[in-house]
Structures are given as C-alpha cells and as structure tokens.
Amino acid sequence: MADPKTYTATCSAPVNIAVIKYWGKRDTSLILPTNDSLSVTLDQDHLRSVTTASASAAFEAGDRLWLNGIEEQIKDSKRLLACIQECRKVRKSREEADASLAKMSDLPLHICSENNFPTAAGLASSASGFAALVATLASLYSLQPTLSTSDLSRIARQGSGSACRSLFGGFVAWQSGTSPDGSDSLAVEVAPKSHWPSLQALICVVSDAKKGTPSTAGMQQSVATSPLLQHRIKNVVPGRMVEMGKAVQAKDFDLFAEVTMNDSNNFHACALDTSPPIFYMNDTSRAIVQLIEEYNRSSIEETGKRRVAYTYDAGPNAVLYAEEKEVPTVLALVRHYFPNADFDDTFNLLGAGANASHRGAQAPAELPSGLPKTFNKDIIQVHQPGSVRRLIHTRVGDGPRTLHKAADADNVGDEKESLVGPDGLPLRLQRAKRV
Ligand code: DP6
User: Fold this and answer.
1) Does ligand 1 lie within 6 Å of residue 220's CB atom?
2) Which residues fall in a compositionally biased region of kind Basic and acidic residues (predicted)?
3) What confidence tens digit (pLDDT) does each residue in 25-66 have?
C-alpha cells in the first residue's frame, strides 16, 4: 500500500552575481562550462527564490510544478526533469539500502516556486530558482549528508549553470572540471560570508525596452564564432581566477575591483566579438562605467585605491560592489546622475526607517561631499529621470535555508512559509482568489 503521509519541505535560495563570468558550454546537455567562474552570493533577506515540494500518493495527476503561481509542464523542460530525476534517484537508492526509510521516492510531487523580486526588475531568477528547487528536494528527501553541498551543486548545474554557485553562501567558485560526464564540474566555497561581511552590492536596474539575447543562446553563439572567447578561455580566465582567489582571501578590495571590472569588460568584448554581435550593455550602462571609472581614477590619485567595482551580466543592469563604508557616497553619486530611481532603503541610509522605499519623483540628490579632489563632475551628464529604474542595496549572504519541513503532523520550522496548501495546490493562487 502506498504511504498515506504527505511529506513537505520549503527552502529559500539566494541570487549570485559572478565577478569572473561563466560564458560558454563545452557540453550543452550536461551544462559543462568552458571556463571556471567565481561569484558573490547575495543576501536572501533581500533577493531570494522560495520553493516548496510536497510528495503524496494523493496527487493523482502525477508530478506538477507552478512558477510564480503559473503551472509549467515539467516534461517540456529537460532541465527541470534532470534536477528532479537526479534527486529522486539518490533517494531511491537510499531507500533500497535502508528499509527503515519512508518510501517516498515514487510518490508524485507538487512543486511551487516563487521569487520575491519581480522578474520585470530584469534580474536573472534561474540561478536562485534552480538552487531553491534542488535544496528543497534535498531537504524533502533528506539527501544530506549522504550528498555534500558540492554534490547538490552538480545537480543544480543541470538546471542552469550559474545555479550551482547559489548552493553556497559567501564567495563561490564553479570549477569547470575536465571529465566528459560532468562529475568534477561543481561549486566549492572559496570563503564564507563571515569572512568578508562588509562587502555590499548596489544593483542598478536600468531601463531597457528591448528583450536581449538570452544567455543560454548568446553564449553558444560566442562559442561558435568568437576568437576572442577562445583567447579568454585559454589565456585570460585562469590567471584571473588565481588573482580573484587572492583578492578574496586577503579582503583586498582594490584588487577585487580591478579584476571584477576587467572580467566584466572582457566578457562584454566577447559578446561584441560574436557574429552577429551581441550588445548587452546600453548607453546608461556605459555611462555608469564612465562614472565609476572616474570616481576610481580620482580616488587612486588621492589614496592609491579603487572604491567601487562594476559588473554586468547578460543585460544592461549594473551591479556595483563596494565596502559598506563607501556605499553612502556611491549611492549619492548614482542618485545624483540618475535621478528618480525607485530605491529600497534596506540599510536606512536616507533616514526614513529601515526597509523604507522611495518611489517615483524624488528631490534632486546633491553630489556627496568628500569626493576626491580631482573628481571631474562633468564626466557624464545628469540623465533623464528613471533611466536607472530601481536601486537595490544588499550585501554578501549565506547559502540556501530550510524554512519548513513536515511529514503530516511532524512540523519543523514555520508552516506559514509553505507555498503548497493542504490540498496540494499553490497557496498563492488561493490567496489571490480570496482577494
Ligand atoms: C552572464 O547560468 O543563465 O550571468 O547555464 O544556459 O542556464 P545557462 O546560463 P546562465 O548564464 C549566466 C551567464 C552570466 C555569467 C555568470 O553568471 O557567470
């Protein structure tokens, strides 16, 4: 007889932003990259994906999945199938080896996943989404400690390459590996969040009407056509991984910033070297580069050190990294040159209370005092209000968290975190229906 219990787990997982970029696959089906990469995990208190997975014999229609309340067909996604099948397979072999374990690997699954940030913000959600899916199935099936976090990252990698790095907090390397079966292509922790907790990020969400080339397609176009990408893979990234490792270990922000910006520019040069060329950055993105370069130039003249790093993924948004003490000045600079950005004031820098949000028209932001003496205020013009749409201030964060786990009446964590109701359907839809 089938197990009559319903098993449920809910986990959250963070976003990560690479400072040495992953761009190119040597195996598109297993998602094996052409180079190593390294990222900073951002705080889930501000940006996260949450997933609930529920297993029950009562789910007669088999496995089902809802993303932000909308049902997706699991069978249409090789990536979803790979992550679910891998986790199930490990659970099944554990059940076969240990008769005392509940037989849940064959039970149908209902999975609900949500992001707390609007996809419209232009932030990639696949990394946190697949990391949350794998962390949740690992929690549901109690796969750890049989599987290590790096083992789980190998599964999440098959959902989306960058997702493997969201299985860890702090500073994370994805080792590309050499094995054709992908067994050594996994994420490892370079340093935990506690190593450098003062590192913060200011995400500048840039307005952009057109839909860009998705990274999955863009990177394979680069692999097929860009000679510069081949140079990057062989001659640029290996040295940069070593330099970045040193910068993180020594908490050397100046070196961290130099390597981060060089790598972002090299990646975007490879996009431009692709045939046909791919443009991810727009005029606003480039103006932010000019502003930060001038700020760093004048700062180096005064103190010998850079104060901010910019990096851009496959889109126009800038992610600025800076030490906590530098952020108020960076924020004031950005708000001066790019007025009216909606701002989530999570660290109460503007004094209206933590988590205050500033929406729409705002008083002009003066240039901050204490800028380096030779800073050229005319380096860029004050832009059209709203050309930076939104600013999100966050910091380095930890890895996935289990928010709730239950087998019928046995509850651990907060049941309110669950996205699946007792009937096995998404609570979000039921909440929406009630409104
Ligand atoms: C520019 O991980 O989204 O953000 O593996 O095809 O899902 P797939 O691609 P994805 O690519 C991310 C590319 C990047 C750089 C990075 O995050 O390292």
Assistant:
1) no
2) 405-418
3) 999 999 999 999 999 999 999 999 999 999 999 999 999 999
Q: Are residues 230 and 140 in the same domain?
A: no
Is 176 touching ligand 1 by the criterion CB < 6 Å? Answer: no
Domain around 339: 199-395
264 lines ligand 1 (CB under 6 A): no
CA-to-CA dists, residue 256 to 40, 123, 252, 253, 322, angstroms: 11, 23, 6, 5, 10
Q: Is 1 within the bounds of a domain?
A: no
| Residue 159 alpha carbon, nearest atom of ligand 1 | 7
- The pLDDT value recorded for residue 7 is 96
Query: How high is the pLDDT of residue 258?
Result: 98
Q: How far is Cα 83 from Cα 78, in angstroms, rounded to an integer? A: 9
Q: What CATH number is given to the structural domain containing 155? A: 3.30.230.10
Query: Is pLDDT of 334 > 70?
Result: yes
Q: Is 355 part of any domain?
A: yes
What residue's CA is closest to ligand 1, atom 9? 216
